[in-house]
Amino acid sequence: MPTTETRGVRNRNPGNIDYNPANKWQGQLPPNPALEKRFARFDTPENGIRALGKLLLTYQRKHGLKTVKAIINRWAPAVENDTAAYVRAVEANTGTRPGAEIDLAQASVMAGFVKAIIHHENAGYAYPDAVLAEGVRRALT
After folding, report:
1. What contacts 10, CB < 8 A, 6 or more positions away?
2. How far apart are CA 100 and CA 21, in angstroms?
3. What's the pTM?
4. What is the domain partition of the chain in residue ranges?
5. Are 113 and 94 spatial neighbours (Cβ–Cβ below 8 Å)?
6. Which of 12, 28, 65, 104 is the S-S candidate for 70 at Cβ 3.0 to 4.6 Å?
7. Are 71 and 36 in contact (CB under 8 A)?
8. DSSP symbols for 91-139
């Protein structure tokens, strides 16, 4: 029976983070080109969500990206995505005014942001609230 899961769900990498050997993500599986050539794979969706959240925090803390637009423009480059639509979707999901600064260190903001990215990257997919909450908790600790 063919699988209908999106690549991000199948890889337990709902943010579709590119594999990079320099990233030693918690729960990251070794690369296996027979299964996946480009993206990282994780042992659990919670660890994939953790990596997504940690990467977003790096964008905010290291690169000084404070708005949904700035973060999404780095996350999902326009060469591969309709970033304007992506930004609107994340702003709507997080209740953020266009151009407003956000603080991803707040669990509720991080959860809304991550949920919106997962929805956008995985054709409307949503994890159970407990899985999302645990991934966000791991990202913020």
Report:
1. 3
2. 34
3. 0.94
4. 7-139
5. yes
6. 65
7. no
8. HHHHTPPTT-B--TTSHHHHHHHHHHHHHHHTTT----HHHHHHHHHHH
Token representation of residue 27: 């729960």
Closest C-alpha to 30, from 41, 15, 38, 45: 41
The tokens for 86 are 């992506």
Residue with tokens 């600790």: 141
Whether the Cβ atoms of residue 90 and residue 113 lie closer than 8 Å to each other: yes
| Distance from C-alpha of 79 to C-alpha of 82, rounded to nearest angstrom | 8
How far apart CA 89 and CA 114 sit, in angstroms, is: 12
Can you read off the two tokens belonging to residue 13? 């990498």
Residue with the two structure tokens 């990206």 = 65
Query: How do residues 51-108 score in pLDDT, each as one tens digit?
Result: 999 999 999 999 999 999 999 999 998 888 899 999 999 999 889 999 999 999 999 9
The CA distance from 51 to 129, in Å, is 17
Residues 56 and 49: beta-carbon distance below 8 Å = no
Alpha carbon distance 3, 10 (integer Å): 9
